[in-house]
Specification:
The complex is a heterodimer of chains A (400) and B (298).
Chain A: H1 2-24, E1 46-50, H2 61-76, E2 79-83, H3 91-101, E3 106-110, H4 115-124, E4 130-133, E5 142-147, H5 149-163, E6 168-173, H6 178-198, E7 203-208, H7 215-227, E8 232-236, H8 240-254, E9 263-268, E10 279-285, H9 287-299, E11 306-310, E12 317-319, H10 322-335, H11 343-355, H12 359-374, H13 385-395
Parallel strand pairs in A: 1-2, 1-3, 3-4, 4-5, 5-11, 6-7, 6-8, 8-9, 9-10
Antiparallel strand pairs in A: 10-12
Chain B: H1 2-9, H2 12-37, H3 45-63, H4 66-90, H5 95-118, H6 141-159, H7 161-171, H8 173-178, H9 183-209, H10 221-231, H11 236-255, H12 263-280
Helix pairs in contact in B: 2-6, 2-9, 2-10, 2-11, 3-4, 3-5, 3-9, 3-10, 4-5, 4-9, 6-7, 6-11, 7-9, 11-12
The chains are: A alpha/beta (400), B mainly alpha (298).
């Protein structure tokens, strides 16, 4: 019986840690903007990147972070090294030994799971500069890089509103934590934006699955939505959403459709290559830019602590395009990941899919992007259950 | 709202979902009932589900053969069963520790295999269609297998001399030994059979439901199965019923869209319903007397 308890305790602790860590990504107002270079660098800057568990090969956060570091190496002539973390227990010693060595001008922590360890270590080494991705550590020597997911979600939401033929779209979500409200708010706003242009009344169904790792649940929920006629589904559920992507793909294939609709929309990294022709776009979080900007600010002496919130304008989020697709095919190839088809065929199918959508849709989305970038349009967001409830009501995301 | 709830109750995915959600928890639970009735506890179900899924997806992906993939899944169960059996039955080791070890090992092996075979830590690609379990009129053969396994296991346990001997070993191994029953061999075989059922649950996830391997594919289903063993009073027929009950409310919780009823309430439905039923009908639960105790001849 003791073992049952132990297991339960371990599970509860893990759940609490996950929720707490994710909750920490709850953002404060932006304080820092990435600085354009004004001076020339003086000495060779050294940067260390600490990967999250998973490390290189996750085809998502960690690989994108490394992409940013490699770009800095090429363009800014800095030295970059990385450290893997096999378990969360490695974060602290990794941070300590890198900080103690004093060799690095900047230490970058990839992922919110390192938040607590960084808080402690960064306080111990006030002269060491740090950056953390997707989380906020409120210390003067830590740059916190976060993303405006609502802006990117607005674009894919508008896209969903434009391309739906059944006038039903769905959102498959992971655990209910504030950071997912950003995705929700932006997406609903975007669907409504499309409604204002096309006049179509689009019904939005959303579903929290309570998990970021159970692909089986994502598949079950997505199949339910498809059966009820939804023809664009948005993945906001990490690995759970992989099941959603597969569900859309299999649904289309069983109906002998060469491409969607029904379409899926990917998240975080460019997921368009996973099922070419069926994933219309991805809401990308450009971790690479967050890393690159942080390094650049150190190189040019512009580094300060505080929150750097990256939206569309700053290149922190974006709707995926062909260039992203090609880049991700490259990353996948480099890592030995299995592609569903030859790179040429993937790009060809992708182009056919995009060409099947009327030109005015892409044009309008470009315009919308520009307007959000220029500040002419402000996309709403939410950080609390009360706020997101109001936004859901306003844009007709009723659930049923 | 009333009409929308009615609408949900009339949806086919709800009932297909019930069956689908039932299989990967009920198969391991049936296996564990057999194991526990012989006096051995295997809390490594979670890990065995993963290993069954991993082995079957790996072989299915690279050979494209459903038969080989199924055999690989079963073989994974046999291997863990033998390991667990040797340590906990013949060497008299701590059964809980073996189970925990299997869980930790399986997760790690899954991640390493994903990376070495498919270059990512997240999930494998989909297996070829030829390696997928075909539907029988929209229902997976695994559903049929689950029902048949439950009934067969019940018959074996309650109506045959083999079952009588197995239960004797689990209740009073000393007396069973004196009566000429080979306690070690009985427990060993029961452990291997239990592990194979758990692996089959994983094989269903890998070759049928997901058609791929995902990191953490079992997602706690092994622990739910362990709880079901107790709810079902170590009775395979009741295991099927509680599997159906749990599966139905789980499917319902996934079918009700967010925003109608608070999600936290919806998610607790399967657990609350199972608890209520267990408290109301499945009274007087008693575990096999010699459960978890290694047998040593004096």
């Amino acid at each position: 019986m003791a073992s049952g308890k132990t297991v339960a305790v371990v599970l509860v602790v893990l759940a609490i840690v996950a929720v707490a860590a994710l909750a920490i990504t709850l953002k404060k107002p932006s304080k820092v903007q990435p600085q354009q270079p004004i001076q020339t660098p003086k000495k060779k800057v050294r940067v260390a990147v600490i990967f999250d568990i998973g490390g290189r090969g996750d085809l998502s956060f960690n690989d994108m972070a490394w992409l940013g570091a490699e770009r800095a190496k090429k363009e800014l002539n800095v030295e970059v090294t990385y450290v893997q973390s096999r378990t969360p227990a490695d974060y602290r010693p990794n941070l300590e030994s890198l900080s103690k060595s004093g060799k690095y001008d900047l230490i970058i922590c990839v992922g919110f799971l390192m938040t607590n360890d960084l808080k402690k270590v960064a306080a111990e080494y006030p002269n060491q500069k740090y950056a953390i991705i997707d989380s906020v550590v409120d210390l003067p020597n830590v740059r916190s890089v976060v993303f405006k997911e609502n802006e990117g979600s607005a674009l894919v939401g508008a896209l969903a509103g434009f391309v739906t033929k059944t006038n039903k779209v769905g959102v498959v979500l992971g655990m209910e934590i504030p950071v997912l409200y950003h995705f929700e708010a932006g997406f609903y706003w975007g669907v409504n934006y499309a409604h204002n242009i096309t006049g179509k009344d689009v019904k939005i169904t959303y579903k929290y699955t309570g998990s970021f790792t159970d692909a089986a649940l994502g598949k079950q929920v997505a199949e339910g939505m498809l059966a009820q006629g939804a023809d664009v589904l948005y993945n906001v559920a990490g690995l759970t959403g992989k099941g959603m992507l597969d569900a859309v793909y299999e649904y289309d294939k069983n109906k002998k459709l060469e491409m969607g609709p029904p379409f899926a929309i990917g998240v975080d990294s460019d997921q368009d290559w996973i099922h070419p022709g069926y994933i219309i776009a991805s809401m990308m979080k450009r971790v690479d830019n967050g890393v690159f900007y942080s390094i650049r600010d150190v190189v040019y002496g512009n580094f300060t602590g505080g929150v750097m919130a990256l939206g569309l304008k700053e290149g922190g989020v974006k709707m995926s395009d062909e260039k992203d697709l090609e880049q991700f095919i490259e990353i996948a190839k480099e890592l030995g990941a299995k592609l569903p088809d030859t790179p040429e065929n993937i790009v060809k199918k992708y182009k056919e899919m995009r060409a099947s959508i009327p030109d005015w849709v892409w044009k309008d989305l470009k315009e919308l992007e520009q307007k959000i970038k220029s500040g002419e349009i402000k996309v709403p967001t939410a950080n609390t259950p009360e706020k997101i409830k109001k936004i859901r009501e306003k844009y007709g995301a009723t659930g049923a | 709202m009333d009409t929308s709830m009615l609408f949900i109750l009339l949806q086919a995915p709800l009932y297909l979902g019930t069956l689908r959600l039932m299989v990967p928890i009920t198969l391991p639970a049936i296996g564990e009932i057999i194991t526990e009735r012989s006096g051995v506890v295997n809390i490594g179900l979670e890990g065995i589900i993963m290993l069954g899924a991993l082995a079957s997806v790996y072989v299915g992906y690279f050979t494209g053969s459903l038969l080989l993939a199924l055999l690989a899944g079963i073989l994974a169960g046999v291997c863990v069963g033998i390991l667990h059996g040797i340590i906990s039955v013949y060497l008299g080791g701590d059964q809980i520790i073996v189970g925990v070890g299997v869980n930790v090992f399986a997760y790690g092996l899954g991640v390493i295999t994903l990376y070495l075979s498919w270059g990512t830590f997240a999930n494998s690609p989909l297996i070829p269609d030829s390696a997928r379990v075909p539907d029988l009129h929209g229902i997976s053969p695994f559903v049929v297998l689950t029902f048949m396994s439950g009934v067969t296991a019940w018959y074996l346990l309650e109506r045959t001399s083999i079952g009588l001997r197995l239960k004797a070993v689990g209740e009073n191994p000393k007396a069973a030994d004196a009566a000429g029953i080979n306690v070690f061999r009985t427990r060993f075989v029961a452990t291997v059979i239990g592990a194979v059922f758990a692996a089959l649950g994983g094989t269903f996830l890998g070759l049928d439901w997901l058609a791929s391997y995902t990191r953490d594919i079992s997602a706690g289903r092994g622990f739910i199965a362990l709880a079901m063993v107790v709810f079902s009073k170590w009775n395979p027929i009741l295991a099927i019923l509680s599997g159906l009950l749990f599966g139905f409310f789980f499917a319902l919780s996934l079918t009700i869209p967010s925003g109608i009823i608070p999600d936290q309430l919806v998610w607790s439905l399967p657990y609350a319903a199972t608890l209520l039923v267990a408290a109301g009908f499945f009274t007087k639960t008693r575990a096999p007397a010699a459960i978890g105790k290694p047998y040593r001849r004096e």
